[in-house]
């Protein structure tokens, strides 16, 4: 009976480890559009309404070198070397045209692997923008193009969001 138990345990372990396939992604980041939503909030200082837009992307990276620590971010800020690059498009007369804002909406996201070990990583990343309704055209239709960059300088594919309408009320 003891031999049967050991054999069953060994078989289960072999089956589980035999079926487990280690995840493998390209070292160049890959992203997909997941969601775009907005929340209407009141500014705590002015009391005016603002649209808080949250863009969610799914990501995969083969060596896990996504995001920057504070020291890396300081160097990147000085060179405006963003690891989250955003392009904004506004609909005018049925055609989307790129908007070049006075202050960029591109930015930085923190390191996504805290253990610093090389290896595949995947997950979702939320990035938010704020639009004050006093300064946003009524029923403003926007969409975004996004790409991310890893610490090795590999640039992801570019994704495009769905359209979102701001300042509806």
Total DSSP helices: 2
Mean pLDDT: 85
SSE succession: HEEHEEEEEE
Q: Profile the largest sheet.
A: 5 strands, antiparallel
Question: Tell me, what is the CATH class?
Answer: Mainly Beta
Dominant shape: globular
* Gyration radius, rounded: 22 Å
CATH superfamily: Immunoglobulins
The portion of residues assigned to helices is 10-25%
Q: Which percent range describes the beta-strand content? A: 35-45%
CATH topology: Immunoglobulin-like
Number of domains: 1
CATH hierarchy: architecture: Sandwich
Structural class: alpha+beta
N-to-C span = 74 Å
Number of DSSP strands? 8
Poorly predicted ranges: 1-18
Quick description:
Strands 3, 4, 6, 7 and 8 form a five-stranded antiparallel beta sheet that branches.
Characterization of the model:
With 169 residues, the protein is α+β, with helices and mostly antiparallel strands. It has a single domain (23-166), classed as Sandwich (Immunoglobulin-like), CATH 2.60.40.10. It has helices spanning 2-19, 70-79, and strands at residues 30-42, 49-61, 84-92, 95-99, 121-132, 140-148, 159-160, 164-166. Strands 3, 4, 6, 7 and 8 form a 5-stranded antiparallel sheet that branches. The radius of gyration is 22 Å and the shape is globular. It starts with a helix and ends with a strand. The model is unreliable at 1-18 (pLDDT under 50).
Per-chain topology:
Blueprint: H1 2-19, E1 30-42, E2 49-61, H2 70-79, E3 84-92, E4 95-99, E5 121-132, E6 140-148, E7 159-160, E8 164-166
Antiparallel strand pairs: 1-2, 2-5, 3-4, 3-6, 6-7, 6-8
């Amino acid at each position: 009976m003891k031999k049967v138990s050991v054999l069953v345990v060994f078989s289960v372990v072999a089956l589980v480890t035999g079926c487990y396939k280690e995840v493998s992604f390209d070292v160049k980041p890959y992203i997909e559009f997941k969601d775009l939503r907005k929340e209407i909030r009141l500014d705590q200082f002015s009391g005016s309404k603002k649209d808080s837009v949250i863009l969610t992307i799914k990501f995969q990276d083969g060596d896990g070198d996504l995001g920057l620590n504070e020291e890396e971010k300081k160097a990147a800020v000085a060179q405006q070397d963003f690891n989250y690059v955003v392009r904004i498009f506004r609909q005018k007369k049925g055609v989307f045209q790129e908007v070049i804002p006075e202050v960029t909406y591109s930015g930085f996201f923190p390191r996504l692997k805290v253990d610093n070990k090389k290896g595949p990583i995947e997950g979702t990343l939320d990035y938010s923008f704020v639009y004050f309704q006093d300064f946003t055209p009524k029923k403003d239709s926007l969409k975004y193009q996004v790409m991310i960059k890893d610490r090795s300088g590999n640039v992801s594919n570019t994704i495009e969001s769905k359209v979102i309408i701001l300042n509806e009320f």
